[in-house]
Every structure is written in structure tokens, then in C-alpha cells.
Amino acid sequence: MEKKKQQPHVVMVPLPLQGHVKPLLCLAQLLSEAGLYVSFVNTTQSHKRFTNVETITTYFPNIHFECISDGLPEDHPRALLTEYFEGMKRETTPHFKELLLSLGRKSLTGSSPPVTCIIADGVLPFAVGVAEELGIPIFSFCVHSARFLWGYLNIPKLIEEGQLPFSVICCQHKKDSVSRWQLVSLYQWSSWTGRHFPAQRLTGILHFTRSHHPIIKFFVGETIAMTKTSGLILNTFDELEDSCIYHVSSACNNLYTVGPLHAHINSKLGDRARTIASHGSLYSVEEKCLEWLDSQPPKSVLYVSFGSITQTSLSQLMEFWHGLVNSGQPFLWVIRPGAVIGEEGNEGIPEDLLPGPKERGYVVEWAPQEQVLAHHALGAFLTHSGWGSVLESIVAKIPMICWPYMGDHYINTQCVTKVWEIGVELEAWDRSTVEKAIKSVMETKKEDFQISMDKVAKLAEDTISKGGSSSQNLDKLVEDIRKIKATA
Q1: From start to end of 160-299, where are the E strands?
Q2: What does the pLDDT look like over 108-144, one tens digit per residue?
Q3: Where does the record place the Glycosyltransferase N-terminal domain (predicted)?
């Protein structure tokens, strides 16, 4: 019992989306390895989808899963983010507060340590308020790049100066675009890192017709709230985004750049990391595709995955299909249920695109992405440019073909293509453009991209090594959490 009382207890709360759950779970595993007691909080609905929970708790006995209701009816739409966030802010707050009070009661009986602090996803609309009410220190965790975060921190000032909003230019960069967001790409942002953020640098990054647009208001508010917490944790590393990290650090109390988190796990756990890499996914992983990869020549396969949110029209899907086939490269393609607009599950999808082996490729509903990218057969990655996917691709030394969809995807794409020069952007989705991009990355410019890729990957390797900046920052985070416990 005495040991439990002395053990720091961190309550971790992700936004229940795949790209948010995975990095926070990686951090939970690292804190567990450092000897901290972790309560990982899922919503009831997302926890039902969580895979291999028992395996995670076996490998990491300091991790304990807790569930709370998001307060929304079972049939309430959770794909419409603005409605979901508003619903969570209204309905989830009392459930989260009661969980924390319950953990406090458990600590009185000695069944768990007292709560030391909270680490919450920075876009959760309820965590900071509850933490302040109960007097519990809270750290924010941001799944986006420092560059994207820095841009958002500048929006209120630009609105105040009258430099925003822009004129109406809504999501017309892709014909038949399915995005409902009026957040589009910050095409010139990626190369600019100055302290004052001129509005013209937002051209192509943020086009919105109203400064009080609910999405803008929500994310700007949550971004500013992140900087007011005990500390801000970023899944990036200093050598990758040095200037933007410097500016973000000036806006917050404490900044911890601890990425790439999945690479930390791989480095610390070795073979054990490969065993659990796909555990904790919100999707059922199809590992048979790894056997198919085993039969392919080295550096020959194109991996295609647009993440857990991106949707396409059926016409877009077919153009991608023809582009892939025409390229002549073998491919592994993730087409998750619901990825095609207007189609439930896989209904309406042509037989050639249903899960299973194909003449020149393999289609799955979800893949073990880390293992796929690390496979010797992989040659390139056609991606939506989510930050987690970009980091995983960098660590695996796999050049990218970027097809950004929303939010930070555009900034990430510009970093990949213009700053680090480790990929190309797919500026249209017709079959000839898709084919041309694949051949550029996997044939004509293959060696050039690999040289750039090796340089950036070396930065990632060094930062998690002993004495590396990310490794030191992770140690500092653990140390600071322990200090909270010592002074509580």
C-alpha cells in the first residue's frame, strides 16, 4: 500500500479518434515503463472497439483502462466533429468529473495511488475545466505539428488586426471535394517561422468567410487553452521543427517535445514493441497482408492509406484504382468501411476493390501500419498526411505521395514536399496524375527522395537516442510529474 501511495498516478484522456488515441497510448506505455501508474480513459463507445486490451495490460501492468460515457445517444452522429465536440462539452463533463472523484475514493482504500495529474488531448472541450475545478494539475497533449499549432496561436491577433477573415474561397482545390470544413491548406505557411505571423502567409492555409465560424472559434479556443496548462506535450522533435517549436515554447508554461513517440517505444522495447504495435487500435487489423508483403520484391510496394477520417467519392476511388493499376507497381491499399461517401460498409464498392488479394495488389479494411512501413517490400506511401502517418513514414525511411484532406494535412504536406523534400503532393486525383506521382517517387526520382529521407530519418533516430533532445525531454516530463507528486 505504501508503494502505491508513493507512485505518481497520471490520468490520460485521448480524443476518441484513431489518430489521437494511438500517440497518447504510446506515451502511456512510456510513462508506465518509467514506473508511473496510468489510468487511460476511453469513452465507452470507443473502448468497445479497442483491440487487445488484455495484451496491453499484460505487457504494461502499470496501465489501467477506465471508461466513461460521452453522454451521447448510441445513434448520435460522431463523425460530424463540431456537433460531437459540442455534445462532449455539454454531456461528458459530469462523467469525467465523477471518474476523477471515484479514483480519489479508491486511493483512500489503497487500491490505487492518488491522482497526481491529468494529461488530456488538447482538443477535448471538458478536461481543463474539470481539472481546474478539482485542483488537479493538467498537461495538454497535441497530436499536431508545432508548425500547425503556431499558426493557430496567431489567428486571434490577425482577426484583431483586421487581416482575417479572407474572402470566400471554400474547399475548391479538389473537384468533387467531400470536406465540409472551411479550413483549407496553408500553402505558404510551412516555410515561414517568424515571430509575427502575417496574414498573407495564411493564404491557402485558412480560408473562412466568418471569423466566428464555429470550427475556427472552437479550435482557436482549445489551442489557446493548451498554452495555459501546466505543460504542453508535442509528438514532434526539436531538430524537425526547430523555429516553430521555439515560438510555441514562448507562448506556453512548459513545452515537452517528445516525439516520435512510437519510435521511443520501438527503441525501448525491441521485439516486444513489434508484438504490440497494432494493439490498442480502434480497427480490427488484418495481418495476413504481411504474408503477402513477404512475397514481394524489395522496395516495390506502394502502401495506400488515407487514415481513419478521410472519405472519398466513388468516382475518386475508381480514379485512384486505375492510377494504381496503370503504374505497374504492386500495392497494399486500405479501404476501411465507410470510407466512400454514401456507402454503408463496403456496399456499392466494385468487387475489384473489396478486401483480399488482387492481380497487382492487396486490399484490406485496416492494416498494421507500423509493420507495413517497416517491411523490406515497401517503396512509397500514398497518404492523407496526418501527422502520425508522416512521423511513422519518416522513421521507416519511406518517401510519401501526399493527398491532404483537411486541417493540418496541408501544412504537413508542404513540410514533406517543400521543407524536407521527402515526397510529392498529389494535386489532382485523376488516374494519370496518380500514375505520374507514383512513378516519380518510385522510379524517376527514387534515389533523390531516398537521400533526403535518410537525412530526416537520421534526425529522428538521434533524437530518441540516449542524450538526444526528445529522450531528454521525455525524462524531464517524467521528472516534473514526480515533482508534482512530491509536493502534493
Answers
A1: 231-234, 255-257
A2: 888 899 999 999 998 887 899 999 999 999 999 999 9
A3: 10-47
> How confident is the model at residue 339, as a pLDDT?
81
User: Whole-prediction pTM value?
Assistant: 0.88
For 11-38, b/e burial (b = at least 16 CB within 10 A) is bbbbbbbbbbbbbbbbbbbbbbbbebbb
**In 10 A of CB 170, how many CB atoms?**
15
Query: Which residue intervals of 74-191 are DSSP H helices?
Result: 81-109, 127-134, 146-160
Distance CA 163, CA 453 (A): 37
| Same-domain pairing of 301 and 321 | yes
Do residues 9 and 39 share a domain?
yes
Which pLDDT score is estimated for 274?
63
Cβ count near 313 (within 10 Å)? 17
Could you check whether the bond before residue 298 is cis, i.e. omega within 30 degrees of 0? no
| Number of domains composing the chain | 2
Query: What share of the chain has pLDDT > 90, as a percent?
Result: 53
Low-confidence ranges of the chain (pLDDT < 70): 1-5, 51, 71-72, 75-87, 162-216, 271-280, 342-348, 485-488
The strand order across the sheet containing 255-257 reads 63-68, 37-43, 9-13, 117-121, 138-142, 231-234, 255-257
Residue 105 burial by Cβ neighbours in a 10 Å radius (0-12, 13-18, 19+):
exposed
Q: Same structural domain for residues 240 and 132?
A: yes
Q: What pLDDT shows up at residue 163? A: 65
Residue 153, domain member (yes or no): no
pLDDT of 182 reads 32
264 is catalytic: no
Q: Which grid coordinates are listed for 99?
A: 471518474
User: Which domain range does residue 32 map to?
Assistant: 2-146+217-272+464-487
- For residue 440, give the DSSP letter: I
Residue 262 a catalytic site member: no
Do 151 and 247 contact (CB within 8 A), yes or no?
A: no
Q: Which of 20, 262, 264, 384 is catalytic?
A: 20
Are 236 and 328 found together in one domain?
no
| Euclidean distance between CA atoms 363 and 377, whole angstroms | 16
Q: Which of 70, 121, 238, 408 is catalytic?
A: 121
Write the pLDDT tens digit of every residue in 289-301. 999 999 999 999 9
Do residues 353 and 398 both lie within one domain? yes
Q: What is the CATH number of the domain that holds 98?
A: 3.40.50.2000
Q: Which residue has the cell 475545478?
A: 133
115 Cβ contact partners less than 8 Å away, ≥ 6 residues apart = 9, 11, 39, 100, 103, 104, 107, 136
